């Protein structure tokens, strides 16, 4: 069989057996195709069944010149999972990536915005903005408030359905990574913004497949992740904010601000949809710097020279 055949089988396994999201599966596929491209460039016709550790090492060495350690580690992890699958299916006996070490990674703290930054970005939205007769200003405000108020991933936001809104109970149902569902509280202010958008949305000619999708473009189709990035980038440029801001920055800010104001780490884990508490614990590193700032500002001994 060709690489492509094994890759199709692997993707089916990831989707059906492991329940991974399309975005995660796409990343696996992209990393494996990097290896295939390397083999083609070097006119190496080795198959997934016969490839040796040495060839994989040559590939890793090549990409190490151009990619960050974090990206290298992700690619190595993706390849390891692919060959683990081939071993599991008895296509080969050993995994050629098993003895290849990933680069050591420092723990990267997520970028965050201050409450003032977020208020300034959202305040910069022109609520009168229309395109093709559809008011998109109110939609954009509802989008950013939902990202920040509920700590959503951008894919969770674009996948959000009207049937996922439980405003009477004060929750929304979110489909996260691996199609795992969780309920996240949603405040009245954000509910009101979404309600305004729903009224505007009712005037759009909506495509059949997007009838239940909450956030749409003017054509009545599901909003893309790229469009959410674009909305945020334009607003950041508009207010002259010298920071790199993405939809995920709002999610990080959500968690950080909760922790700074005394929220329980386990509750934050549940709202973010982290499978492991250790993933959420990265925010305690940010909180420590906040606490240090509080001590230096307010503790009497820090203001007194002994």
TrEMBL record:
CDD domains associated with the record: INT_XerDC_C (cd00798)
Gene3D superfamilies, per the entry: 1.10.150.130, Intergrase catalytic core
Coiled coil: none
Compartments, as annotated in UniProt: Cytoplasm
InterPro entries, sorted: CB, DNA_brk_join_enz, Integrase-like_cat_sf, Integrase_catalytic, Integrase_recombinase_N, Integrase_SAM-like_N, Recomb_XerD, Tyrosine_recombinase_XerC/XerD
Taxonomy, superkingdom: Bacteria
Function of the molecule: Site-specific tyrosine recombinase, which acts by catalyzing the cutting and rejoining of the recombining DNA molecules. The XerC-XerD complex is essential to convert dimers of the bacterial chromosome into monomers to permit their segregation at cell division. It also contributes to the segregational stability of plasmids.
Family: Belongs to the 'phage' integrase family. XerD subfamily.
UniProt subunit comment: Forms a cyclic heterotetrameric complex composed of two molecules of XerC and two molecules of XerD.
UniProt protein name: Tyrosine recombinase XerC
Organism, as annotated: Winogradskyella haliclonae
Gene for this chain: xerD
């Amino acid at each position: 069989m060709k690489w492509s055949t094994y890759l199709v089988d692997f993707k089916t396994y990831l989707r059906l057996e492991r329940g991974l999201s399309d975005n995660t599966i796409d990343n696996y596929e992209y990393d494996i195709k990097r290896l295939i491209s390397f083999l083609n460039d070097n006119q190496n016709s080795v198959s997934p069944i016969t490839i040796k550790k040495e060839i994989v090492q040559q590939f890793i060495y090549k990409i190490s010149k151009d990619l960050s350690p974090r990206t290298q580690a992700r690619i190595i992890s993706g390849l390891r999972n692919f060959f683990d699958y081939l071993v599991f299916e008895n296509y080969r006996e050993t995994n050629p990536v098993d003895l290849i070490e990933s680069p050591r990674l420092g723990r990267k703290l997520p970028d965050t915005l201050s409450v003032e930054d977020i208020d300034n970005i959202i305040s910069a939205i022109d609520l009168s903005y229309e395109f093709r007769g559809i008011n998109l200003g109110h939609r954009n405000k509802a989008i950013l408030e939902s990202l920040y108020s509920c700590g959503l991933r951008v894919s969770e936001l674009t996948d959000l359905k009207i049937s996922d809104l439980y405003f009477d109970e004060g929750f929304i149902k979110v489909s996260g990574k691996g199609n795992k569902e969780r309920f996240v509280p949603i405040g009245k202010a954000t509910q009101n913004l979404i309600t305004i958008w729903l009224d505007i949305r009712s005037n759009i000619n909506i495509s059949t497949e997007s009838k239940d999708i909450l956030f749409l473009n003017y054509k009545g189709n599901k909003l893309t992740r790229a469009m959410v990035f674009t909305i945020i980038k334009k607003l950041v440029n508009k207010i002259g904010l010298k920071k790199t801001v993405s939809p995920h920055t709002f999610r990080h800010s959500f968690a950080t601000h909760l922790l700074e104001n005394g929220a329980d780490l386990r509750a934050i884990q549940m709202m973010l949809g982290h499978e492991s508490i250790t993933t959420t614990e990265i925010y305690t590193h940010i909180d420590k710097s906040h606490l240090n700032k509080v001590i230096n500002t307010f503790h009497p001994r820090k203001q007194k020279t002994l």
